[in-house]
Write a structure and sequence with these properties.
- The complex is a heterodimer.
- By secondary structure, chain A is of the alpha/beta class.
- Chain A has helices at about 25-30, 55-60, 65-80, 100-115, 120-125, 130-140, 155-165, 185-195, 225-230, 260-275, 290-305, 315-320, 325-340, and strands at about 10-15, 20, 90-95, 145-150, 175-180, 220-225, 240-250, 285, 315, 345, 365-370, 375-380, 385-390.
- In chain A, the strands form two sheets. In chain A, strands 1, 2, 3, 4, 5, 6, 7, 8, 9, 12 and 13 form an eleven-stranded mixed β-sheet that branches.
- In chain A, a hairpin with a 3-residue loop joins strand 12 (about 375-380) and strand 13 (about 385-390).
- Chain B contains four helices and no strands.
- Chain B has helices at about 5-15, 30-35, 40-50, 65-79.
- In chain B, helix 1 crosses helix 3.
- Classes of the chains: A alpha/beta, B mainly alpha.
């Protein structure tokens, strides 16, 4: 990653997702069946209490913040204590929306019971920066604490900026990733009415019969650390952030630019940042939402950048659904797990690729591979594109 | 002091402030002893208003720092 010469190590991560809580359960979920009969997928029987000192603290946190703190707990347990000055540690976090559940509940409370019953916690719970701020407070990170809200590209942009702060030498460690929990009745109706959700209730990225995304939720949190400092403290380095890029289509509020030209430029920019050639990339972790437009544009962009055949490409959204601003975080976790297990998880539910998909999509069984540089893409409403390139530690 | 009223007051405190019932004494200070910040207190008063079917205007809460003071305010209105 280009900067002041500092390599960026990943020394810890944590995941909460409908298919599993914790990285190992998440990995088993990614190898399991996909979602085939639901427009939404939630974390079942979520219990926030293990991640808070008492029920009051849990109740003061929207579910999206609870997810973020749960994932952060696993990440810090993995990385061990960070011995840096608080002012040299930051939190750069991503979410598409923030505490929408709290907002919707309190709107209902106001309508039913009046203004005097609206919770004093409405504002600190719904604000989109609450999850990132909670991480900063809990772990006493006094460097930059910022939240990026670029819709479904938010976590990828957050990770890119977090890595940059380390590469530039401005921080010794940055906690990053993303969280989302926005499955309210109103939000589901909004996505359904814009015909973004799968009418069949099946997430099958790149399939010829794909018909929309399944609305998901979850969080993943990562500890990015200056490589030499991580080595000096004897940390276990899991992976390296090799490059990242961000750009915009400047085309349409929801539709990708024709041919995925914005996504092409973003991937090329990330490759340049990593000083890699397209042939160096050994896996593409696609945004692959299962909408007709996204998957077509992304596949065209991947084919244009990498030629034929493309590197193996997978989308985990057949299993996870689409957790909006947390998507890039769950995908980065999937990439780290694919390094660890030397397997690329298959694109669940997908059996016959669309005619417009000229890519080597991993379908059926997981594919064995020799871990190498992997690019993960995310694209958000608003025309936001983000790519991050991760490599195994060596 | 009505024990029945105080028990109901205590129940609200236990639920809203996540404290043991034993800590809810007349002398207990919200901030120092019950670790309740200003937002906690607003939510707690809302719960008391519902529980006792009373209204507590914000200005009447000025200067209230202990459980006993808050209880007396509520109990006077609940009569």
């Amino acid at each position: 990653m280009q900067g002041a010469g500092h390599r960026v190590a990943i020394t810890g991560y944590g995941v909460v997702a409908p298919c599993g809580l914790g990285k190992d359960a998440f990995w088993r979920g990614l190898l399991g069946p996909g979602i085939t009969s639901a427009k939404t997928v939630e974390i079942a029987d979520w219990d926030p209490l293990p991640y808070f000192s008492n029920p009051k603290e849990a109740r003061r946190s929207d579910r999206v913040e609870q997810f973020a703190l749960a994932a952060a707990q696993e990440a810090f347990a993995m990385s061990g204590d960070l011995p840096y000055e608080p002012a040299r540690m930051g939190s750069i976090f991503g979410t598409g929306i923030g505490g929408l559940r709290t907002l919707e509940e309190q709107v209902i409370t106001r309508v039913e019971k009046g203004e005097r019953r609206v919770s004093p916690f409405l504002v600190p719970m719904m604000m989109s920066n609450a999850a990132g701020a909670a991480i900063s407070m809990r772990y006493h990170l006094q460097g930059p604490a910022e939240t990026i809200c670029t819709a479904c590209a938010a976590a990828t942009h957050a990770m890119g900026y977090a890595a940059r702060l380390v590469a530039w030498g401005q921080c010794d460690a940055v906690v990053t990733g993303g969280a989302e929990s926005a499955l309210t009745l109103t939000a589901v109706a909004g996505f359904a009415n814009m015909t973004a959700l799968s009418s069949s209730g099946c997430s099958k990225p790149f399939d010829s019969t794909r018909d929309g995304f399944v609305f998901g939720e979850g969080a993943a949190v990562f500890i990015f650390e200056r490589w030499d400092a991580a080595v000096a403290r004897g940390a276990n380095i899991i992976a390296e952030v090799l490059g990242a890029a961000s750009n915009a289509d400047a085309h349409h509020i929801t539709a990708p630019s024709p041919g995925g030209v914005g996504a092409q430029a973003c991937m090329r920019s990330a490759l340049h940042d990593a000083r890699l050639q397209p042939s160096d990339i050994k896996q593409v972790n696609a945004h692959g939402t299962s909408t007709p437009l996204n998957d077509s544009a992304e596949a065209q962009a991947v084919a244009a950048v990498f030629g034929s055949p493309t590197p193996p490409m997978t989308s985990i959204k057949g299993v996870t659904g689409h957790p909006l601003g947390a998507a890039g975080a769950l995908e980065a976790a999937a990439v780290l797990l694919s390094f660890e297990h030397r397997l690329i998880p298959p694109t669940a539910n997908t059996s016959t690729l669309g005619d417009d998909i000229a890519c080597d999509v991993v379908i059926g069984e997981p594919r064995a591979w020799t871990p190498g540089p992997t690019i993960s893409n995310n694209f958000g409403f608003g025309g936001h594109n983000g790519s991050v390139i991760l490599g195994p530690a060596n | 002091m009505s024990q029945e009223l105080f028990d109901r007051f205590t129940k609200c405190a236990v639920e809203l402030l996540s404290v043991d019932a034993a800590k809810v004494t007349r002398d207990a200070r919200f901030k120092e002893d019950l670790e309740a910040d200003s937002l906690d207190l607003v939510e707690f008063v809302m719960a008391l208003e519902e529980e006792f079917s009373v209204e507590v205007p914000e200005k009447e809460l000025e200067g209230i720092t202990t459980v006993g003071q808050a209880f007396d305010l509520i109990a006077a209105k609940a009569k």
